Amino acid sequence: MNKAKHILNLLNFCRGGYVPITGPLKVFFEITFRCNFRCKNCDIWKKPKGDEINTIQTRDILKQLAKNNVLHVSFSGGEPFLRKDLLDLIKLANNLGMKTSVNTNGWFINHKVAKEICHSGLDTIYISLDGANANIHDYIRGIQGSFERVLKAIELIRVERNGKTPKIFTNITINKTNVQDLAKMVDLSGKRGVDGVTMSVVQDFEKYRPNKEMVLSSGYLNELKLQMGLLKKDYRHLLPHMDGYFDEFGTYIKNPVELYKYRCVAGYATVLIHPNGDVFPCPVAFKKMGNIIQGSFAQIWYSENSNLLRKKIKENKHPICWFDCMAPLNILFYYIRHFELFKLLNPRFLSYLKHKAIS
């Protein structure tokens, strides 16, 4: 029944509707802003941490999400493994019938934690990788030894899971410092036995304010194009997203307004929850919808305020991003609306889509 509602809901979106008939497909749940890294790609570690919802409140929120037909919860931060209750929250979400993923820097994954991860029911783990060697990765991440910790975390989980879940992905943020090594990073990931690699170009928003030295400019487009050509030629089997997503990297860098042609699903198929319970349409967090501690998720999701925000998003009154958590969904529904379904016939993309939300 839940899946049928989502299908009807998404068909309504494709027809131009903006008032949902069910909860979102996916919830991005940032359970903490605390972070042990000092990344140059992101400055969340500098921000005031404020209040953080406790375990009892978080468990209640997960129950509310399940009651509102959410299919997938993505736990992130900050660094989510700084929450000692993370694995218990993953188990609860899975017991409630939701798929789960987690985004991590890998630092805290030792033998014991890897074993617990593999017994938690977690579906997918994304481990950040920002260099093909320690010099580049550790420089971007701001912590000596972080590169070796990433490789160790991948190995520990790969062995402990015994061929089952969680699926392991490395996640790359492409920037000025590592763009020339993009193919090398994907090659390294493949040799380490990961299931795939996700990536996006570094993006400059108030919430994720990177160092200026990280942001790609038009002068790097040729190198980016070269690297993406190598990936499509030699490593396509490791990239779960459709070509249309990668093809627009250059568009985002040189003329992002062109990407408004893809109607955004933010606030309709996705929603974000901050560590203090604030609710936003998406990870950019450009407009608050409400606070889940002060009101229920259903009250926020179906409110007139949220419907007005969705209408504005439909009218392209929102900032443009090109993150791999949002843009592929936007492209997917663009293809459906324009009857370009042949562009979706990539077996790896269909398998990834099934793993993420449908199955």
What's the layout of helices and strands?
Blueprint: H1 2-14, E1 26-30, H2 55-67, E2 72-76, H3 86-95, E3 99-104, H4 111-118, E4 124-128, H5 134-141, H6 146-160, E5 167-174, H7 182-191, E6 196-201, H8 221-234, H9 243-247, H10 249-254, E7 270-273, E8 278-280, E9 290-291, H11 297-301, H12 304-314, H13 327-337, H14 347-358
Parallel strand pairs: 1-2, 1-7, 2-3, 3-4, 4-5, 5-6
Antiparallel strand pairs: 7-8, 8-9
Helix pairs in contact: 4-6
Helix run count: 14
**Which bin fits the share of residues in helices?**
25-40%
Radius of gyration: 19 Å
- Order of helices and strands, N to C? HEHEHEHEHHEHEHHHEEEHHHH
Question: Which strand order do you get reading across the main beta sheet?
Answer: 6-5-4-3-2-1-7-8-9
Tell me, briefly, the overall form.
globular
Distance between the termini: 13 Å
What does this structure look like?
With 359 residues, the chain is an alpha/beta fold. The protein is built from 14 helices and nine strands. Helix 4 packs across helix 6. The longest helix is centred in the middle third of the chain and has 15 residues, at 146-160. The chain starts with a helix and ends with a helix.
Short structural description:
With 359 residues, the chain is α/β, with parallel strands linked by helices.
